[in-house]
Design goal:
Helix content is 40%, strand content 21%. The strands form four sheets. Strands 16, 17, 18, 19, 20, 21, 22 and 23 form an eight-stranded antiparallel sheet that branches. A six-stranded mixed sheet has the order 1-5-4-2-3-6, sandwiched between helices. Strands 8-7-9-10-11 form a five-stranded mixed sheet, sandwiched between helices. 49% of the residues are buried. By secondary structure, it is α/β, with parallel strands linked by helices. The radius of gyration is 24 Å and the shape is globular.
């Protein structure tokens, strides 16, 4: 159908949601607005669905959610002959509505469904899938996107986000379903009465927290440390569980950013509720100026990622990057477990290919294996699964990605801001008892291992034309490969879509034994690097830059010029 034909079909059939009806009526005759909503359909992939809330096939609404869930139900019934599914949601607008709609579809398909009575963090959903032995899971969230977005993450039976293969099967099922006539659906109360839908009991969350606290590397270290923490859940899901785990491990002095304490899908204090962005932390930093804590913690709306700030000598507060937190946690866990004699044989740290290479040098010092995987925490989860299948899961110490996601332990298969907040607080207490701030810790690691600066740049390409532009940029880079960037010779190019890495100095070609992904990586002289990756969940291209220098100032100087050159590379000056 053309976009106008789809629009007319929705006018006729999408009558259940009055807000969507009003939106459709308001854009009658506006071809640009109609096209934006109907030129394509949100595609179900390994990240599930994500899009702007509203009417149309290119928006998040109850009809898209129902159709996707019918596809998931078909997958569960055809692949496993039935089974259970767990669903939860974060604080996003309509997130609870979408959870209930999905549950009603699953129940109508004879699938037992566990739902949460209130919003919960994404890692809890991963835990629920494993706890109940489910065949799949759904988390209604758009993570750190602006308030106008919502999304639908799908999980496999291992608690990881779905693999390419499974997501492909679900997508094929979705494509075969008419969203208005092809979806089974039943009343929620009836589904509960028949035992097809069940609310998760509170004791299950106690089990989750028990698993979180089992990951303490230095139990009891926070007691008596007089650790002062400012915490903001950024109007999301972390408020209850993060505060509870901090209290349980002995962090008694926790100040909460009141404006961002309670769930609010409009995120009134920050347009991007993303702990990577200073604007989201402004209120927390303002409180730091008043309270003078040892640590600021900020979890994103679905509490799978955490950002931190720590005090400088002059009393100001330094935002710590995701890479820097990963560096400190790697060193802390290896250091403490070595001191205690609890370091497992052949320990493993897992990180994504776009995360800092400094970790490799720390791991080498402790005889720890470092594994690189593609961007996406499900790939870290796959490493854990491989270890579990060999009864070697105790080797896994930490998985992390530069975008502020961390996991210690194997009780879930996604990044977890609850366990990360606990370990970061524990680490801050450990060093405070030695008279050190985390600022001194990270700078000490730079002094020891070298100055590595990482920076991530996002370039947005909205709408239908934006997708074409991103494809054009990536194609041009493949056809016209750069010989130098920022005056530094390109020594190697890795194309993860072509599964090959070429050493331009020796012309040797190495096969990349990772799933295909639309990523280009350029290794430059002196350990500097540029990685280009279109986002799988948002209309943007991400640039990951690494500069390596002889001092903090020198490294920053290299980064500033590298950033200019990298923008030119994309043609987005």
């Amino acid at each position: 159908m053309s976009h106008n034909e789809l629009f007319n079909t929705w006018l006729e059939k999408a009558t259940e949601d009055k807000a969507l009806v009003a939106e459709l009526e308001s854009i009658k005759g506006n071809d640009t607005e109609i096209y934006e909503r109907f030129y394509t359909q949100l595609k179900f992939g390994t990240a599930g669905l994500r899009g702007v809330l509203g009417a149309g096939t290119n928006r998040m609404n109850i009809y898209i959610v129902r159709q996707a869930t019918q596809g998931l139900a078909n997958y569960v019934n055809k692949t496993f002959g039935g089974g259970a599914v767990a669903i939860s949601h974060d604080s996003r607008n309509n997130a609870d509505v979408f959870m209930i709609e999905a549950a009603k579809v699953l129940a109508a398909n004879g699938i037992k469904t566990y739902i949460t009575s209130e919003l919960q963090p994404t890692p809890v959903l991963s835990f629920l899938v494993r706890h109940f032995g489910c065949k799949a899971g759904i988390m209604v969230t758009a993570s750190h996107n602006p308030a106008k977005y919502n999304g639908y993450k799908a999980y496999g039976e291992d608690g990881c986000q779905m693999t390419d293969v499974s997501a492909g099967i679900v997508y094929d099922e979705i494509c075969s379903i008419d969203m208005f006539s092809g979806v089974k659906h039943m009343d929620l109360d009836k589904a509960i009465d028949e035992g097809l839908v069940e609310y998760v009991k509170d004791e299950v969350y106690d089990e989750y927290l028990k698993c979180v606290k089992a990951q303490q590397a230095n139990e009891g270290i926070c007691k008596g440390a007089d650790l002062k923490v400012v915490y903001t859940p950024l109007n999301g899901t972390g408020n209850k569980l993060v505060r509870r785990v901090l209290a349980d491990i002995g962090v008694e002095n926790v100040s909460i950013v009141k404006e961002q304490e309670l769930p609010d899908g409009n995120f009134p204090t920050c347009p991007f509720p993303n702990p990577e962005i200073r604007e989201a932390l402004n209120l927390g930093l303002k409180m730091c100026d008043e309270v003078k804590p040892d640590l600021l913690l900020a979890t994103d709306p679905d509490a799978d990622r955490v950002g931190i700030a720590v005090p400088e000598k002059d009393g100001s507060y330094r935002l710590v990057t995701g890479n820097e937190t990963g560096i400190m946690l790697t060193d802390y866990l290896l250091r403490v477990k070595s001191e205690q004699g609890t370091l497992p044989e052949n320990p493993i740290i897992v990180k994504t290919i776009v995360s800092t290479q400094l970790v490799k040098r720390i791991c080498k010092d402790y005889g720890c294996e470092m594994v690189d995987v593609l961007t996406g925490f499900k790939y870290i989860g796959e490493v854990i699964l491989g270890l579990e299948q060999k009864n070697e899961e105790s080797r896994f110490l930490l998985g992390f990605e530069e975008s502020y996601g961390y996991l210690s332990g194997t009780y879930v298969r996604d990044k977890d801001a609850v366990v990360a907040s606990m370990l970061i607080s524990e680490m801050a207490a450990y060093y405070k008892k030695q008279g050190k701030t985390l600022t001194e810790v990270i700078d000490g690691l730079y002094d020891k291992y070298g100055y590595y600066l990482n920076r991530t740049l996002d370039f947005y390409f909205e709408g239908a034309s934006g997708m074409d532009k991103m494809a054009e940029i990536m194609n041009n880079l493949r056809v016209n490969a750069p010989a130098e960037i920022n005056g530094k010779k390109v020594q190697a190019i890795a194309d993860y879509l072509e599964s090959k890495a070429v050493n331009l100095e020796t012309n040797e070609v190495e096969v990349i034994n990772l799933p295909k992904s639309n990523v280009l990586s350029y290794t430059l002289e002196g350990g500097n690097a540029v990685i280009v990756r279109p986002s799988g969940t948002e209309p943007k291209i991400k640039l990951y830059l690494t500069s390596v220098g002889t001092s903090k100032e020198n490294t920053l100087e290299i980064m500033e010029s590298l950033q200019v050159s990298a923008k030119k590379l994309l043609g987005v000056e």
